[in-house]
Structures are given as structure tokens and as C-alpha cells.
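Check my protein:
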Amino acid sequence: MTNITLSIPPELARELPSDPESLAQVLALGLKQWQVSQSVDVDLTKLQQVYKLRQPDETQRFLKAFPDLVEALEAAYPPLQNLFGDAVPVHLEVLHDPEVEEWHTLTAYIFTSLPINEALNRLARFDETWLVHQPETIQDHLSFSLEFV
């Protein structure tokens, strides 16, 4: 058994449960959230090598809330390269629906100079060969769109 000593400011200590079992549950949950947070921070460095974050702080908060998206985005880039070219620029942006408070999604904008019909066909191919095979939780929070340059 390992003993851990925590120094907690008095204003925070008043909000913690006083019984040991409840306190242990709160601390375990906090540790798990911290571990997820730390792993997402590390993975974002790798992610930013291939994606540009339009709103870095908001995107990071979104990816912390949905950490499975980080791995999905890493897996999505090679198929995007196959369809749109090796150095295809892709920008990430969190979008919100002003009419639906809880609705938000991470959109990956694929930059292309392809003719419109060709680009749309390639995006449809990406959707059919990669996106539809992702878990529903990924599909609910991640979308891909085109940005013509």
C-alpha cells in the first residue's frame, strides 16, 4: 500500500466528502480524468503535425471531452492522403448549432483545388470506406467537409 499526502486549499477541502469511502471515489475519479487529460495533451502534439487547429484552445477542450476522436483523427489522415494527396492540408474546427445548445461537432476541412465534382466524389469515397466504419460515438462528433482553394 502506498500512502499519499495531499495539500488541499481549505476552500476546496470544504467541498470534499468527509467519509473515507466517498473521498476515495472522488479522488479515483479525479485521477482517471487527469490521466485522460494528460494522454490527450501528449497526443495533440502528434495530431498537430498533420492537422491545423483553427481554435486551438476550444479544439483541445473538445478533444479532452471526446478523447477517442484523437485516435480516430490520426487514423483518418492516411486515407485522406490517398484520396487528396500526400500533403493535403486539413483544418479542424469545433462547430456549434446556435439553435441547439448541446449540439457541437468537430469538423475537419479538407483543402483542395480539385474540380468540385471530383472532390465531392473523393469525399464520398472517404465517407464510404472510412467514416461509416467508425463507432457511432466518432460519427456523432466528427465530420469532414471540403474547402476549395
Summary: Residues 20-47 form the longest helix (28 residues).
